[in-house]
Design brief:
By secondary structure, this protein is α+β, with helices and mostly antiparallel strands. It folds into two domains: about 45-160 and about 285-340, D-Maltodextrin-Binding Protein, domain 2 (3-Layer(aba) Sandwich), CATH 3.40.190; about 160-280 and about 345-370, D-Maltodextrin-Binding Protein, domain 2, CATH 3.40.190. It is about 35% helix and about 15% strand. The chain contains 13 helices and nine strands. It has helices at about 50-60, 75-85, 100-105, 120-125, 200-210, 220-230, 240-245, 255-265, 295-305, 310-315, 325-330, 335-340, 355-370; strands spanning about 60-65, 90, 115-120, 155-165, 190, 250-255, 270-275, 280-290, 320.
Length: about 375
């Protein structure tokens, strides 16, 4: 899956869906408090958490999209949610990009198979806020203002660092971005997705731009580097997946540290480097589709993700859950897992929404020409 970024502080931790059965349209249904289910902005609108759970169980299903099982531990999270509430989770297009999520919601609007919830990169999320339903979870006050929309339209869920993963059995050790231009890496360097559509790829180009003298205000040097990489024959136009990494098809991958780190458990020769002088961090955006076919289940999913249980499941996937600081202070963050999350000493770049918008436009105008 290819997902972009949000303003954040330095990180200390760092198949198509099986069609859901036709569902009754809940958009006109009301909660016990008289609020439409599709317009409920908190569990209180349902009459409390128990009533929300009851409404979600009545719907019986939840549609998610672009959530690979090995991305941020979503496989375990989906299972835990389904087991806890007895709600079937239909997972569509697990390897899709953020923009694909929005496209699917538009194409399937009004159908029982439309996505109920989104997990998006910054640039795609902020460009589509009119499609989101505001909702504030029970742990809302635990989430710093920088990580959420004040009205609950979106909330950051987890984050990490951009990194370079490589198979030490197939290529020389990568110590810097500039190493990737060397002949030893010919036809071996893959980027996770298209930076005009995918958050991971966007942040990868930004990381490269920083290494070439660029900045969050100037991503052009990153695009130029990939033009050189393509010219040298080193750029591999393949979307990396666990399968391509383990088969040796993509021996060098620019991707989030938690995705690259997950491969070290399966491939002992896989190593991960977060360039310390060009560190880029980012959070993903969680939101509810305002046209969700299962609006109560969508809201219950949010409650689960931002609960201690959900946040610890994210942490087990090697990402920094958005409530990490509060949970550490409260002693509710899994200490063993927290100790394994990366710490970066030094400056970390996190582009602002304005910087992301500017960079996104530059990429739209120049990326295809550079690597075409």
């Amino acid at each position: 899956m290819n997902k972009s970024v949000v303003a954040a502080s330095v990180l200390v931790l760092a198949g198509l869906v099986a069609c859901a059965p036709p569902q009754k349209d809940n958009k006109g249904g009301e909660t016990s408090s008289g609020v439409k289910v599709s317009e409920a902005t908190s569990a209180a609108d349902f009459g409390g958490m128990d009533a929300l759970v009851e409404a979600a169980k009545k719907e019986g299903a939840l549609n998610v999209i672009a959530l690979p099982p090995d991305w941020a531990n979503y496989g375990a999270t989906i299972k835990a949610f389904s087991d806890k509430y007895g709600i079937k989770v239909n997972s569509a297009q697990p390897d899709a990009a953020s923009q694909d999520e929005i496209n699917a919601a538009n194409q399937q609007k009004g159908k029982s198979t439309a996505p109920d919830v989104f997990d998006l990169g910054q640039s795609v999320a902020l460009a589509n806020t009119s499609m989101f339903a505001p909702y504030k979870v029970a742990t809302w006050d635990d989430i710093a203002a920088a990580y959420k929309d004040a009205n609950g339209t979106w909330v950051n869920d987890y984050g990490g660092y951009m990194s370079i993963g490589f198979d030490s059995a197939k290529v020389p050790p990568v110590t810097s971005v500039n190493d990737l231009l060397k002949p030893e890496y010919q036809g071996k360097v893959a980027l996770n997705g298209d930076p005009t559509q995918a958050g991971a790829a966007f942040s990868g180009v930004l990381m490269v731009a920083l290494s070439q003298g660029g900045s969050a205000d100037d991503i052009a040097p990153g695009v130029e580097f990939f033009r050189k990489l393509k010219g040298a024959g080193n750029f591999l136009p393949v979307d990396p997946t666990p399968a391509t990494i383990e088969s040796g098809q993509t021996p060098v991958v620019i991707d989030w540290n938690y995705l690259n780190a997950a491969e070290t458990k399966k491939l002992p020769t896989w190593q991960v480097v977060v360039p310390p002088d060009n560190a880029v961090a980012g959070f993903y955006y969680q939101a509810i589709n305002k046209d969700a076919p299962h609006p109560a289940a969508a809201r219950l999913w949010q409650e689960f993700l931002y609960s201690d249980a959900g946040q610890n499941l994210f942490a087990q996937g090697g990402v920094r859950p958005v409530r990490a600081d509060n949970m550490m202070a409260a002693g509710t963050l899994d200490k063993m897992v927290a100790a394994q999350l990366p710490v970066i000493d030094g400056p970390v770049t996190v582009p602002s929404p304005d910087q992301t918008a500017k960079a996104t436009k530059y990429l739209a105008d120049n990326w295809a020409k550079a690597i075409g």
